[in-house]
Design brief:
Pfam families: Hydant_A_C, Hydant_A_N, Hydantoinase_A. InterPro entries: ACX-like_C, Hydant_A_N, Hydantoinase_A, Oxoprolinase-like. It comes from Mesorhizobium abyssinicae. About 30% of the residues lie in helices and about 25% in strands. It is an alpha/beta fold. Helix 13 links the parallel strand 23 and strand 24.
Length: about 700
């Protein structure tokens, strides 16, 4: 039996429709896509590992490390399929997760429906005891009442407990003591907000600990099954999870804090795009990741994805901030919409074509899969338009039924609008492309950016099919479709560093800043973050420290990076200068001329990561050698509004410097890149496809 080596690494990404597997053997990549198994998600990983190890000619025992990301936690929250959870909170704060912030996210909707809280009112328990905003005990914890609550929870058939006390971010003693008392009578997992999300703002903090507790039993069970079954097939290597902030953590940490896995798959995609940006020296990039269920768009500047401390799951109003479930954890900032290959097309009451957010997923899948799906999906529209080869989808593993696609499209959409199959399919694709374009514009504007200033990096099984059209709508002149784009997130897992971000809220005005106290706080955060990283990294670790600051009286704060060194006597002056410089960068100018306007620090963040090796640099080339297609296919062209003859070229037949004039389709095992009449394509030195708008200055 061959022993495992650390230079054989495998990434596994469970998506809503496909599970992507990428095996890297000393720089040589083997990949595959298999349909996600909802009943036993780990089965798809095992099936994929069997495929890539067979193709590579190795045994599973030779794999040195497995890195895994999954949408299971996200889906459990969206579909409300978690454990029955009890919330234990401070007396008087029982309804915080239902009252929310009292913000009307849709100002003029008279029938506004707030999202239903994750835990119903009858499953929320209150106890006396109070910590003040400065961390002082104002009222002792009622331990006798907690013991009674434990009895009620034990008798109630609960599967998990969340504890969220007011101001626990400032002093966690009451939460820890409550956990001790409950644990004496309960054998179910207990999550406390001071460990899950030690940040200000009780609604976000309470909701986050509730979400963690809600998915914890399910995720712990899944991760335990995965490890057992991997060992049974001979893969006894360590398994690490990618978290929403883009770093790697141990399975044990992921089992305890599964809310950190929300958005883990999309985070891998953003890391993949950032690696491509660094490879080509691209400082302004928009990543476009379209899979089977959703599309994700992320801005990447200076080779790093934008990050945030809070994001929303399951928004009930499209693009509407405040309409979803807030999760207060470090996360790569992106916008995600229900626009994937499996997104269902339908007609609304006003006779308009709509797509998503409901997805056909892998079970039953789009109509063309022949797995029982009857409703039309984006993949059905792409097939009818000629973008897909029905005999060569997923490397020929899935034979597509074009007639089933036509029937579904006509029955559910075309006949209602008196359109033929081709026109209906074009309308469906135009709607989904416009939805994605609008999402990209909104995301860029919210961050003060112009979307057309960026180069696009497109990946995911469906993105290369739509990327050129999306660039036409957004005014983007260049788009890279990387090698391995169909399994981009899984490849991104292999590029991710071991990393963890520790946060702590401590409201401090600069006039009362005490360097010694802050140095102690940051030392504790560094020790915590580095401790998580050390579970998988033995090399050098670097720390990034950020102070989230604001003018006193403002509702929200801005990130201010500070040096990783102890604060001295000049700390106040330095922090003031850094804050004003960053404030000016965000808003155009700092606030001046107001006497007594104080600056305050709300939260400290320490992000620890191990140092990754530098990537090899490549120069973008526009190519000289024209490549003529040997075969052709009729594909609907959006510019002319009619089918045209597109050249069909196998990606593996192209070499660096080859140029393909649009219209054409470059096909490969896991995806196809559609080159519309507006674009040409050039193969880069690393195998990536660069789409260049005809007539641009590229």
């Amino acid at each position: 039996m061959t022993s495992r080596t650390d230079d054989i690494r495998l990434g596994a990404d469970i998506g809503g429709t496909f599970t992507d597997i990428a095996l890297d053997i000393r720089g040589t990549l083997f990949s595959t896509k298999v349909l996600t198994n909802y009943a036993a998600p780990e089965q798809a990983i095992l099936d994929g590992i069997a495929v890539v190890t067979r193709d590579a000619g190795i045994s599973p025992s030779e794999i040195g490390i497995i890195i895994h990301g999954t949408t299971l936690a996200t889906n459990a929250l969206i579909e409300r399929r978690g454990a029955r959870t009890a919330l234990v909170t401070t007396e008087g704060f029982r309804d915080v997760i239902e009252m929310r912030t009292e913000n009307r996210f849709e100002q003029y909707d008279l029938n506004l429906q707030l999202p239903t809280p994750l835990i119903p009112r009858e499953d929320r328990f209150t106890v006396k005891g109070r910590i003040g905003a400065e961390g002082q005990e104002l009222q002792p914890l009622d331990e006798a009442a907690l013991a009674e609550i434990a009895d009620r929870i034990a008798a109630g058939g609960f599967g998990s407990v969340a504890i969220g006390f007011i101001h626990a971010y400032a002093n966690a003693d009451h939460e820890r003591r409550a956990r001790e008392i409950l644990a004496r009578k309960l054998s179910i997992p207990i999550s406390i907000s001071a460990e899950v999300s030690p940040q200000m703002r009780e609604f976000e903090r309470f909701n986050t600990v509730c979400a963690n507790a809600y998915v914890r039993p399910q995720m712990a069970d899944y991760l335990a099954r995965l490890q057992i079954r991997l060992k049974e097939m001979g893969a006894e290597c360590p398994v690490f999870m990618i978290h929403s902030g883009g770093g790697l953590i141990s399975v044990e940490t992921a089992s305890e804090f599964p809310v950190r896995l929300v958005e883990s798959g999309p985070a891998g995609g953003a890391i993949f795009a950032a690696d491509i940006a660094r490879r080509f020296g691209l400082e302004k990039v928009v990543s476009y990741d379209m899979g089977g269920t959703t599309a994700k768009i992320c801005l990447i500047e200076d080779y790093a994805p934008r990050t945030a401390r809070t994001f929303e799951v399951a928004r009930t109003y499209r693009f509407c901030k405040g309409s979803g479930m807030p999760i207060s954890i470090p996360v790569i900032e992106m916008i995600e919409i229900g626009a994937g290959g499996g997104s269902i097309a339908w007609v609304d009451a006003m006779g308009r074509i709509q797509t998503g957010p409901e997805s056909a997923g892998s079970e039953p899948g789009p109509a063309c899969y022949g797995r029982g799906g009857k409703r039309p999906a984006i993949t059905d529209a792409d097939l009818v338009l000629g973008k897909l080869d029905p005999d060569n989808f997923a490397g020929g593993a899935i034979k597509l039924d074009a007639s089933a696609s036509e029937q579904a499209i006509l029955r559910d959409v075309g006949e209602r609008l008196s359109l033929n199959a081709m026109s209906t399919a074009f309308g469906i694709c135009e709607v989904v492309d416009e939805n994605m374009a609008n999402a990209a514009r909104v995301h860029a504007v919210e961050n003060g950016k112009n979307i057309s200033d960026n180069l696009m990096i497109a990946f995911g099984g469906a993105a290369p099919l739509h990327a050129a059209r999306l660039c036409e709508k957004l005014g983007i002149d260049q788009c890279i479709v990387p090698k391995g784009a169909g399994v981009g997130s899984a490849i991104g897992f292999l590029k991710a560093p071991f990393g963890y971000e520790a946060l702590a809220s401590k409201l401090t005005r600069l006039s009362r800043f005490k360097p010694a106290e802050v140095n102690t706080l940051l030392a504790d955060l560094k020790a915590s973050a580095e401790g998580f990283v050390r579970t998988g990294a033995a090399g050098r670790i670097v720390c990034e420290i950020t102070a989230f600051m604001r003018y006193a009286g403002q509702g929200w704060e801005i990130p201010v990076p500070v040096a990783d060194e102890p604060f001295g006597d000049d700390a106040v002056t330095k922090l003031k200068d850094l804050f004003e410089a960053n404030y000016q960068r965000f808003f155009g100018r700092a606030i001046e001329g107001l006497d007594g306007l104080e600056i305050e620090i709300v939260t400290w963040s320490v992000k620890a990561t191990d140092v990754r090796p530098e990537v090899a640099r490549h120069e973008l080339t526009t190519g000289k050698r024209n490549n003529e297609a040997v075969t052709t296919r009729s594909v609907f062209d959006p510019a002319s509004g009619a089918p045209q003859t597109y050249g069909i070229i196998e990606r593996e037949t192209l070499c660096a410097g080859d140029r393909v004039a649009g219209p054409a389709v470059i096909v490969e095992r896991e995806t196809s890149t559609v080159i519309t009449t507006s674009f040409d394509a050039v193969i880069q030195s690393d195998g990536a496809i660069l789409l260049i708008r005809k007539g641009s200055q590229a």
